[in-house]
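Hey, sorry to bother you again with one of my protein questions. A protein chain has come my way and I'm curious about its shape. I'm sending you its amino acid sequence along with the backbone structure tokens. I owe you a coffee for this, so here goes:
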Amino acid sequence: MGLLPRKLTIKIENFSAGKIFSSLGRSLFYLFIPGSLIVLAAVLLAEGNLIDVIPEFIPIYSLVVLFIGTIIGIKIKSSQLVHSLLFLTLAEGAVYFISDNSSPLTGKEESIIHAVAFLIPLNLVYLSISKERGFINKEGRRRLSQLLIQVLIVYIVSCYPQIGLSIYLKHTFFNWDWTNSLHLAQPALAGFILGGIFLFLRSLLTRSAIDIGFFWGLVSAFIGLGLYYSRGLSSFFLTTTGLILVVSISESSFGRAYQDELTGLPARRAFNEAISKLGGEYTIAMVDIDHFKRFNDRYGHPIGDQVLRMIASHLRNVSGGGKAFRYGGEEFVLIFPGMSKRKTRPHLENLRKEIQNSGFMLRRGERRTKNGKKIKPSSRKVNLTVSIGYAGRTEQSTSPKQVVKEADEALYRAKKKGRNIIST
């Protein structure tokens, strides 16, 4: 290492194979759990012929998923879930009531199945990227109208074959042997493949429970329509798609309640539950970014969000075993279980100095003046500071809520004294 130039010196201590594998393990866990387990359970049920033993289970299963999923969707205000379940119910109903294992499909019935199979990946991809806009507002009405238009299109395709749309839905583009083993026409197969690739890459990028749920939901629908095609099993796997979406969207809603989406820190609800379990000696510290509103007004909210994430990273790594939470706005809170006020202060002081000395780099991209002259990208360092108020459990203040109140009052005194200080 001593023979290498200084600029080429690699800091081996910053490289940790354990951290890489740990991060990879977490990514794979989020990507495969619980969606893959639900799909695997459905496949095991199908392979075990349990569906043939109790065919009455299929409509009951569908109604239970629809009913419970709709109630959950309304309760957590997820129009994405409700509209997805409504679409899947129509698709599952078409497959269940039109398909009949005892006789071959007619041309009309075959056209409906091909149309439904083609629309499933398109709708799941569309619904996965749709934002929550409500049920009965303009966006909600637009989604419902799109669904009704699709029902109308399927009706036209099946009842008016002379138009020729059904021909395109079952057209063969390539003479590949492996496609002959599937029960999907090539247009629908292409939709499943492209939709699966899109949702898989999106899941890797966002690690969102919702995106991962839509990916595994699409996998379940593909298995039901492409591999296990029959009246009962296809309906079973489409309903399983709905079940996966119910679980994933509920998981996402739960996560938003307990984790702050911007900073990645536990949110206020998680903090309230954490302090309710505190006992013995502990210290609670309130942390506030100095003059954050002025900073936000000057540089804009996107830069302000970067500052919040940067401060959160410092709080996350605070020494002394402190646990950081996003309390609201530019306020954060730290819990030091089993630690007195006197022992906590050095850790808080180190945190304050660390934030003061690190600063924040403002980067401006290349831009032009009115005369068309280019101005090269530039950056400058902006100093940021925090004020901290802290309080500990005493004989007079045994309630965690009382300790939080005292820490908040101490924070007020720190800001009143001039900021960038610690107060008790």
